[in-house]
Write a structure and sequence with these properties.
Blueprint (H helix, E strand, L loop, with lengths): L2 H45 L12 E9 L2 E10 L3 H4 L2 E20 L2 E6 L4 E4 L2 E3 L16 H9 L4 H5 L3 H21 L5 E9 L2 E8 L9 E7 L2 E5 L14 H9 L4 H6 L2 H22 L15 E7 L5 E7 H6 L13 E24 L5 E7 L7 E5 L1 E6 L1 H76 L1
Antiparallel strand pairs: 1-2, 1-16, 2-3, 3-13, 4-5, 4-9, 5-6, 7-8, 9-10, 10-11, 11-12, 13-14, 14-15
Helix pairs in contact: 1-10, 3-5, 6-8
Amino acid sequence: MGMSASQARFLTLTAKKTNTEYEGQQINQQRTMLSNESSNYYSQLASLPVPTPPSPSDYTKISYMFNDGSATNTITSLIATPSTASTGIYKLNYTQQIPTDTMKINGQSKIAQITIEASSMRYFINEAELVPPVTIDDNWNLSITEEEYMRNHLKFSIPEEVVDSMSYEQVKEKLTNEALTFKYYQAMYPDTEFIMYYQDTGNGNYNPVFYKRPTVSDDEMVNNYHFIGAAQLVYACRQDSRGNLNIADEESMRLHFSCSMPMDVVNSMSVEEMKKKLLLEVQYVKMLEEKYGIEPVVAPNYVDKSSFKVIYKKSPEGAYEPQFYSDADLENMDYSEKTGLSIGALNNYVYGREMETKEIKNVDAKVEQDSSGRYISIYIYDDEQHIDGTKYSLTATTISDENGYNDAMNQYYYEKALYDKKVQDINAKIEIIQTQDKNLELKLKQLDTEQNAISTEIDAVKKVISKNVESSFKTFNA
């Protein structure tokens, strides 16, 4: 290699080395920036508040109770006064629960509404007419045998085109099922007249539904009657200002109870037993009207209306107890055009016990504690001198605020989900930075390798140049 070529190569290698050094500086600067960015993300991770689950102990407290006859009292607060330190007297606040005999909501029921045209004694649920059920004897013979009459029976409540599309075997099977179901009701309510119709249950299915034939007074032409299952709701008994019941004779009494009770049970009751039940109906309706602010029905004696209708249900003990339904609710309820059933359910009311709660405030009281600091008894004073106090034993009960604890746990799960999301997002960003840093590190290593190779070549070129210079000097000095 000549002198000029060696010099040119040396300059090229020197420039290349300078360029790789510059690239290395740029990469180191980028890595420094990535390191600072990564450090910021780690600082964010460290500064994130870590959610902690609630402690059950924070949602439990010790409640003190004492009994006063049938009343159960729960202490809500003991407030110290300026004289408490010297007298030991606190201001006591507590809630008192007293069992009270009352009319209460027992549950809710679906109601069926039947319209009766008394002039023709025809019964309807919307457009479907209710008719006496088909019967079957012990030899499986139906009371209707001709196909035409079978189909006509179904057409009272099933659309004509649906009945016409059924085969004879399908019609007969449907009537047989109806008759067998009716046998079950006959066994439950012997000597009771029933009517029925086919209820549209959807998807082209029609099932038989049975009701006791409603009782209709002579002066009624068109009216709505209400049923739960097969049993009819009737107006509760009324009493005039002279104490006379509007259901007074034995036949009317038995008719009243037979609307929802089996006839054998009704027939087993004496007139005095039935009168006693009717007087209870009068009393219960008065209690309902007073409790719920319902205006009593004011009408002439010949109108057998009441603000409530009644049905008798068999209790677990075997007795038949009255359930009451608001007549206004029954009339104002919306009923399905398809099934005749109420859209929604109505409250029913029964006689029973409820706990009446009172707040007792600012009573003077003194408490006694055991060696552990728990209250064991309390004195409640009626006089300002605090002489005649009534002592009550205290019972300590641990009460857990489950709703509060569950709400706190739900809040914890929500905050933890947010925390985990933030951690995942930050870790994802750090992972990207680490990948970028590794790529830069690989590039820097490549530059180091390239720079080492350039340095080696520069050294070789320097030697060549040095030899050329030395050779030139020897030539000129010869």
